[in-house]
Write a structure and sequence with these properties.
Layout lengths: L1 E2 L2 E2 L15 H9 L4 E8 L5 E8 L6 H19 L3 E5 L2 H10 L7 H11 L4 E4 L20 E7 L3 E8 L2 E9 L8 H16 L7 E6 L2 E3 L2 E4 L8 H8 L2 H10 L4 E5 H13 L4 E6 L3 E6 L41 H7 L13 H13 L3 H25 L3 E5 L5 H18 L1 H6 L1 E3 L3 H6 L1 H6 L7
């Protein structure tokens, strides 16, 4: 297979997607003959910096390949770690081409605009002679079990809350709500406060509150979240950015609190259940939600939005409707992937069904051992193996927990089985280094809201 003048050899191809071109394999073959230094750095909040030193070819014949390679790396760094300023050091023409893509009207305008809004800074790409040094500020959070704690988990269809005393859950509840279709932020605020009060009623006092919520959170503030999709921007800025801070302090006064992305809290729950660190959690549901706990048991504060990190270099890759980009994880590791692949296996899905209902149709066929459904899950297993090799290069994780509706039942078992087979066959080094697994009963007992309760360190 050839892409932009780079020959790529792949041993394992998804049976329902013969055009799939694993981005990590493209990277490997691109770098074989690249020897002109090219460095990238991404600046995020609080002066933190991510950087990457690599190479390009610097020849007219492979100029398009050079630009594509650098642009995909920049995108991956932005969605893994976040940032509002990109520094490029290297080939002037490549720098200029990439800068033009990450600008108003450019190919990556979505990323340009999104990051500017999240970090509340104008987004820019700057050419420099030398990139700044890397700087990170991981925080040791979670695992605090002492005292009377509340853990709140805000989901798109239900909200969960737990009252936890000295590490033992004494009360939990799950309440259906409709945050994604509600424009009034007071609805969200009142729901959060109701949950907090419900848990507090089952304890003698409240020593700390932890929140797990879908979205991007910086310094406990909501910078972007699908839960508040319908809230107008002026009300979002006025009432949503500090919604969890207000709900907690209005209800309990000056108590310690912490607000983190639900993917990171899932990874934390996994680390607690495994009694080990260096855990990547991947939840395959409506989208691809990811969290990471590093080798020191710290949550990094990175975005970890791998749904928008590219995994497929094929120019025919499926396009994501929201970002407008192609080949990104959301179309490979969510219910969208099942829906995309089912017709290719000969499974016709009723277009009047919701995406979740379409997934259930394929899951039912899989439980009945339908060979067409098996092909769908086998294909996702191949996708996953190639993507885990890419993610391993990014994170160097040891454990990877595979969660979410797509991973449930026989289909999830087949995804895991096929993934392990491909890793062993095509990526033996990665296969030896990582342990992919499904959550066990111990993980389920820890739970998302209970793990959230352990986020904040209580005052002495």
């Amino acid at each position: 297979m050839n892409h932009l003048g780079i020959d790529v050899t792949i041993k394992n191809i998804p049976p329902l997607d013969p055009g799939f071109l694993p981005l990590n394999r493209f990277y490997e073959n691109f770098l074989k003959d690249a020897n002109e230094p090219f460095d990238i750095a991404v600046e995020r909040a609080n002066g933190e910096m991510a950087n990457h030193k690599t190479f390009v070819h610097g020849t007219p014949e492979l100029f398009e390949a050079d630009v594509y390679y650098v642009e995909r790396l920049v995108k991956s760094m932005l969605w893994m770690k976040g940032g509002f300023r990109v520094y490029l050091a290297g080939n002037q023409a490549v720098c200029d081409a990439v800068a033009a893509k990450y600008a108003a009207g450019g190919q990556q305008e979505f990323d340009w605009d999104y990051m500017a809004n999240v970090f509340e800074q104008p987004f820019e790409v700057v050419r420099v002679d030398a990139i700044p040094a890397a700087k990170d500020s991981p925080k040791k959070v979670g695992g605090h079990l002492d005292g009377c704690r509340i853990g709140f988990d805000a989901g798109g269809s239900d909200r969960k809350v737990s009252a936890v005393i000295d590490g033992e859950s004494v009360y939990s509840e799950e309440v259906v709500w409709f945050p994604k279709v509600t424009a009034d932020p007071d609805y969200h605020y009142n729901g959060i406060v109701a949950a907090l009060k419900s848990a507090a009623a089952h304890m003698p006092r409240v020593d700390a509150v932890g929140v797990s919520s879908a979205g991007v959170y910086i310094n406990n503030r909501t910078m972007n979240a699908s839960l508040f999709l319908q809230v107008p921007k002026d009300l979002f800025d006025a009432k949503v950015k500090d919604i969890y801070i207000r709900a907690i302090t209005d209800t309990f006064g000056d108590v310690p609190y912490a607000v983190y992305n639900d993917g990171d809290v899932s990874a934390l729950a996994g680390a607690m259940s495994l009694n080990d660190n260096n855990v990547l959690g991947i939840a395959m549901g409506t989208s691809e939600a990811v969290g990471y706990v590093d080798e020191n048991g710290c949550i990094t504060g990175w975005l970890n939005e791998l749904a928008f990190v590219p995994v497929d270099a094929s120019p025919e890759a499926m396009r994501d409707e929201w970002s407008g980009d192609i080949g990104c994880g959301v179309k490979y590791f969510s219910q969208d992937s099942v829906i995309k692949l089912a017709p290719r296996a000969g499974i016709e899905l009723d277009e009047s069904l919701s995406p979740a209902e379409k997934l259930k149709v394929v899951q039912k066929l899989m439980e009945e051992d339908d060979p067409r459904a098996a092909q769908v899950y086998e294909s996702i297993g191949v996708y996953l193996a190639h993507a885990l090799a890419l993610y391993y290069d990014m994170y160097q994780f040891h454990h990877v927990l595979l969660l979410g509706r797509v991973m449930s039942g026989k289909g999830g078992d087949l995804i895991l089985q096929r993934c392990k087979e491909v890793l062993a066959d095509e990526y033996p080094v990665v296969n030896e280094a990582i342990l992919p697994s499904l959550p066990d009963e111990k993980f389920r007992r820890v739970g998302q809201s209970a793990a959230a309760a352990s986020l904040a360190e209580r005052k002495n």
